[in-house]
């Protein structure tokens, strides 16, 4: 099959063409907006006459939708010259397609794809999964408020970074990442998250999942994960050759005392704010998992996905600060700025750096240099800190409004995991999760159920709940999203003779100790926090 790119920028040479398919208009000037000067990609089959090959290629381009209705085709003299055909061959092909209704020709307008030449049913795309932008009300977790992206400050940093960047920055990129960004991150992470890192041990990646794939390629074997967690993180590890085994999660975080029985040499944890159930990993369990790693050569992968957003207490420092030789710390700009940036960072033990860099490859193919330079300046000039302080106030207000709304309109629904982050967990009566999700879908509300986050091999009893992202909607849409949420929730269970449990009040949950009370699907911690 011959593939031909046709550049018709000079195809205005077709002056005086006449007698076929409407090119008799002369095409006196190649109007840039008309499509005459654009490239046209045609696939010639190599079978039959040149005319049949051309008609077949054009017909397929229209049928598939690649040439949209109204698209203007090149004059036939220019197309004939580019394809190495005679003018009459192209003119006859155009005329045949006009007669069949694929093309239309009119004096003064040239030859265009006919308005009704829609893609053939066999070529049409099937039903597509509804995207976030098509949902009227969006309470999906794990996304920030896109309208709050600091465009002006980011543009200022971009201009400054471009002015200061050396010429070498625009050559072949270093897979470790730009030194300006690694230096800025080393200072910021030490100051804000208690991470111990030198720029030489920081590797820039495209986000947490990318970093996890790199580690999986290096480590292999078995990966212990929290029973509740993101399924696509488990899938990323498994697709890279690792086997995942679940650890029970309770009010104190993952039961790391189960690690010796798993046979794993690597464990993935969310110590600052367990995802999605909420709450930090208990101090004794932090110490216990570090002891486990040091005693047996294990590795802790620390997912610090929203460590900057803590509302009711001081921020929980990174486990990496205690054991930088045994912890891979991974963070990203996905929650703090935008997932569209595709910027993440790995702080690696020194003994692991070369292997992970080798797994990434000899060139940077994931994160753009311009965004790296911009983020480096954004951090160094203090704009990142100012943005985070503003967003903490913004998201805390959102969280408080969610809690108050539920306390007023659905007091039977318990809320947990709200001391930090961008989401909350709503505990539902047994057997009502799917009905609530169906009710939400009918009203155009996107939200997640709790059950899909449970590892399929976990021995924990599944519980019904909803994972509500209060960071996602824009301000003007947040109130309507909460109204729709309340309409989707199940009704209260029949009243019993017992007094109501005050701990079930969402307002008291937020005001007292939202981190330490067990959330949906969590086992009671028991008397031994480490096990």
From TrEMBL:
Biased composition (Low complexity): 504-518
Pfam families: Aminotran_1_2 (PF00155), GntR (PF00392)
UniProt keyword terms in alphabetical order: DNA-binding, Pyridoxal phosphate, Transcription, Transcription regulation
Compositionally biased intervals (Gly residues): 13-23
Positions of the HTH gntR-type domain: 48-116
SUPFAM superfamilies: PLP-dependent transferases, Winged helix' DNA-binding domain
GO molecular function per UniProt: DNA binding; DNA-binding transcription factor activity; pyridoxal phosphate binding
Tree of life domain: Bacteria
Residue numbers spanned by region Disordered: 1-40, 108-146, 488-531
Family that this chain belongs to: In the C-terminal section; belongs to the class-I pyridoxal-phosphate-dependent aminotransferase family.
Protein name as annotated: GntR family transcriptional regulator
Native source species: Streptomyces laurentii
Taxonomic classification: Bacteria, Bacillati, Actinomycetota, Actinomycetes, Kitasatosporales
């Amino acid at each position: 099959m011959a593939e031909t790119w046709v550049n018709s920028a000079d195809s205005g040479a077709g002056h005086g063409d006449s007698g076929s398919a409407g090119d008799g208009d002369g095409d006196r000037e190649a109007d840039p907006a008309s499509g005459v000067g654009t490239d046209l990609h045609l696939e010639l089959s190599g079978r039959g006459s040149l005319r049949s090959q051309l008609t077949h290629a054009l017909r397929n381009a229209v049928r598939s939708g690649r040439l949209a209705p109204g698209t203007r085709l090149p004059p036939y003299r220019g197309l004939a010259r580019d394809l190495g055909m005679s003018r009459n061959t192209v003119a006859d092909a155009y005329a045949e397609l006009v007669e069949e209704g694929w093309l239309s020709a009119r004096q003064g307008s040239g030859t265009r794809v006919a308005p009704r030449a829609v893609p053939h049913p066999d070529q049409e795309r099937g039903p597509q999964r509804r995207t976030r932008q098509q949902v009227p009300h969006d309470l999906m977790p794990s996304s920030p408020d896109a309208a709050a992206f600091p465009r002006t400050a980011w543009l200022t940093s971009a201009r400054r970074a471009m002015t200061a960047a050396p010429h070498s920055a625009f050559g072949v990129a270093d897979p470790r990442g730009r030194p300006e960004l690694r230096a800025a991150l080393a200072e910021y992470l030490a100051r804000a998250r208690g991470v111990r890192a030198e720029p030489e041990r920081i590797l820039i990646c495209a986000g947490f999942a990318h970093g996890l794939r790199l580690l999986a390629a290096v480590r292999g074997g078995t990966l212990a994960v929290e029973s509740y967690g993101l399924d696509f993180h488990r899938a990323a590890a498994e697709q890279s050759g690792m086997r995942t085994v679940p650890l029970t999660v309770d009010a104190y975080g993952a039961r790391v005392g189960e690690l010796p029985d798993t046979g794993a040499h690597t464990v993935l944890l969310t110590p600052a704010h367990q995802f999605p159930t909420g709450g930090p990993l208990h101090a004794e369990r932090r110490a216990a998992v570090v002891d486990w790693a040091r005693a047996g050569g294990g590795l802790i992968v620390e997912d610090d996905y929203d460590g900057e957003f803590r509302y009711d207490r001081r921020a929980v420092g990174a486990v990496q600060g205690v054991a930088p030789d045994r912890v891979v710390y991974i963070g990203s700009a996905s929650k703090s700025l935008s997932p569209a940036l595709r910027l993440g960072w790995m702080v690696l033990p020194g003994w692991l750096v070369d292997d992970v860099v080798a797994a990434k490859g000899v060139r940077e193919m994931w994160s753009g240099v311009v965004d790296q330079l911009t983020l480096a300046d954004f951090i160094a000039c203090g704009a990142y800190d100012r943005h985070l302080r503003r967003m903490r106030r913004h998201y805390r207000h959102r969280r408080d409004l969610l809690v108050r709304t539920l306390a007023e309109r659905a007091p039977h629904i318990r809320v947990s995991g709200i001391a930090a982050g961008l989401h909350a967990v709503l505990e539902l009566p047994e057997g009502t999760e799917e009905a609530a999700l169906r009710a939400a879908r009918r009203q155009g509300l996107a939200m997640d159920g709790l059950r899909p986050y449970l590892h399929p091999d976990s021995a924990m009893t599944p519980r019904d709940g909803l994972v509500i992202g209060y960071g996602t909607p824009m301000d003007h849409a947040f109130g309507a999203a909460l109204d729709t949420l309340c309409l989707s929730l199940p009704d209260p269970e029949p009243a019993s003779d017992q007094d109501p449990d005050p701990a079930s009040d969402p307002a008291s949950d937020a005001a007292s100790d939202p981190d330490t009370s067990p959330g949906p699907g969590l086992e009671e911690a028991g008397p031994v926090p480490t096990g």
